[in-house]
Amino acid sequence: MAGFIWAGDLNGQKNPITRNYYVPDATAIDRGEPVRFTQGTGIVVLDDNTNLQKRILGVATHDKAASGGTSLEVSISPTAIYKYRADKTYTLTGGSTTTAVDSSLQPSTDDFYNGGAIEIVTCAADSSLIGRIVRITDYDQGTGTMTLAETLPAALASGDTVYICLGNMAEDYLGYDLDSSATAPDFDAVGGTVLRYLYSNPDTMEMFFTFEPWALNAATYAPTV
What we know:
six-stranded antiparallel beta sheet
């Protein structure tokens, strides 16, 4: 299931805190999509999802098609935890039977992806590897090389594709933007101040995030005195 799905709350709340908001009839929203509210307009889709700098109101709890009514339920707790199951495809720039290489991965921090995992989406050398989840034991930021915890029966190579799950060495990281769909973090880009990674279950490729409502761009939102 795509997007960010409510999974708990740092305040201990057992159920999601939600409100129904006005949304223009022509506006389409996906379940699990972060949204904002604009006065005089209602719920709007993000306009800066590849450069997250503005406050996010919350996350839509269900799909809303264009011409699908004017009400949308939104999970609005500022301490809500959202589960994201890795589903963004990353194209490798190299690899082997023991490595997967993506030279565009961010941030530029050695060992950042340690403890995480990849799920093989396509493999030209051996299609039977599709769907296989393999843990990451080491990450070299200089080359984007992820060392795998096992030796594969066939080599990964440039052009093969994977999903990526963060691990325990990335916990509490605040800095990823969203991809163009606004329903997945983009590990090829940094700069956002809203999406915070908490922890993961690499065996299921599930990651858990919060949206920081007040982690705003200081230059844009600094108070005047």
